[in-house]
Design goal:
Length: about 140
Amino acid sequence: MKINKKIIKELSDYLEEFNLSEIEYTEKDTKIKVSKNNISVNNNSFPINNNQKTLSENSNKITKKLSGIEITSPIIGTAYHAPEPGAKKFIEIGKKIKKGDTIMIVEAMKTMNHVPSISDGVVKEICVADGQPIEFGQTLVVLE
């Protein structure tokens, strides 16, 4: 069996481009799985980063300590802040929310999954950008 290095390189590039920890490719009887090591902190996986910068809206890396109630993603997918493009966002910073309120939608395999708040509180921080790929356990929102 000959290993196709081009496919492995392409999958490795996708890991970086979409900030994934693992990707799998199957074609006929060939199955290729590529993954990278991450450090686990508070049940969330984040790449190592020695720079202590603040979190920017388009950043996929959390480099500062979060305090408050963290709501994490229950699945891998794409995060959306509103039910459809151009619609009002589910939450905004400073908004009071109740336990069970939808904070955002995570699309996985063409299925829109509503992510509920796990607690009452005030939205302190939104940690992911609209349309951003996210990982299981990644912090989506921090409540006070």
